[in-house]
Amino acid sequence: MKDTRALIQSHQSIRKYEDKRVDDAIIADLIESARWAPSSHHVQAYTIIRVTDHEKRIALKDVAGGQPWVETAPVFLVFTADWHKHKINNEKWEAPMQMEETENVIVGAVDVALAAQNVLLTARSYGLGGVMIGGIRNDLHEVARILELPSYTFPVMGLCLGYPDQDPGQKPSSC
Ligand SMILES: Cc1cc2nc3c(=O)[nH]c(=O)nc-3n(C[C@H](O)[C@H](O)[C@H](O)COP(=O)(O)O)c2cc1C
After folding, report:
1. What is the mean pLDDT of residues 114-125?
2. What is the pLDDT of residues 76-103, one digit of tens each?
3. Alpha helix locations (H) across the chain?
4. What angle do helix axes 54-63 and 140-147 make, rounded to 10 degrees?
5. CA-nearest residue, atom 6 of ligand 1
6. DSSP secondary-structure letter at 42?
7. Please, which pLDDT band fits residue 1 given cuts at 50, 70 and 90?
8. What pTM was computed for the model?
9. What pLDDT score does 107 carry?
10. By C-alpha distance, which of 111, 107, 113 is closest to 158?
11. Which pLDDT score, from 0 to 100, does residue 11 have?
């Protein structure tokens, strides 16, 4: 295992993968890492969906503008901002949920980003590589239809993961 600093500073997106299954225990551990991401007010306003259905993978690839790795990656996760679960809880406790649209969108999207980066870094510690997929936002409604998302949720990004079958090299960092 590489140390954290070396992992972070050797980042490169990987879009081509070996034809090798990723163990379920590893995937469970990736989700465990997501759970430990900091979260605004600890609301954890996201849900992670592992998409295994091939037809759905093809449909999501199409939404993302035909990016083949959305279909071919051994693992494809969709990170959705999720206020639906809070709505259900609030109804249960008869406490009306306050939706401040912009704030809720930002909190959901930031929570997702932090969780997704935790997942990617943990995946890399297992020798996996991956790429985040913002292309699924090309058509939010279509993704919601494909994944049967409830109201008060929206997809923020996908994440392709697998054992790397390419070494594209790091892009120059700036700032
Ligand atoms: C939120 C987010 C969305 C992204 N969406 C896509 C995408 O849809 N397709 C893709 O191939 N790469 C996507 N990327 C990867 C970026 O293109 C990549 O991180 C950037 O070009 C820098 O390259 P590097 O990751 O190899 O350093 C995304 C990255 C982020 C952070």
Report:
1. 98
2. 999 999 999 988 988 888 887 777 789 9
3. 4-9, 24-35, 54-63, 68-72, 84-92, 101-125, 140-147
4. 180
5. 133
6. G
7. low
8. 0.96
9. 94
10. 113
11. 97
Q: What's the N-to-C CA distance of the chain in angstroms? A: 28
Q: Give the number of C-alpha atoms closer than 13 A to the C-alpha of residue 48, restricted to the C-beta side.
A: 24
| Cα 14 from Cα 169, distance rounded (Å) | 10
- In CATH terms, the fold of domain 40-162 is NADH Oxidase (3.40.109)
Whether 13 is in the pocket of ligand 1, judged by its Cβ within 6 Å, is yes
Which residue, by CA, sits nearest to atom 7 of ligand 1?
133
- Rounded to whole angstroms, the Cα distance separating 66 from 58 reads 9
* DSSP β-ladder status, 153-162 and 46-50: unpaired
Residue 157 CA to residue 20 CA, distance in Å, equals 24
> Which atom of ligand 1 has the smallest separation from the CA of 173?
27
Residue from 79, 124, 131, 139 whose mutation best tests the ligand 1 pocket (most atoms within 8 A of CB)? 131
Which has the higher per-residue pLDDT, 20 or 174?
20
Query: What rounded mean pLDDT belongs to the chain?
Result: 95
Q: How many residues does the chain have?
A: 175
How far is the centre of ligand 1, averaged over its atoms, from the C-alpha of 19 (Å)?
A: 22
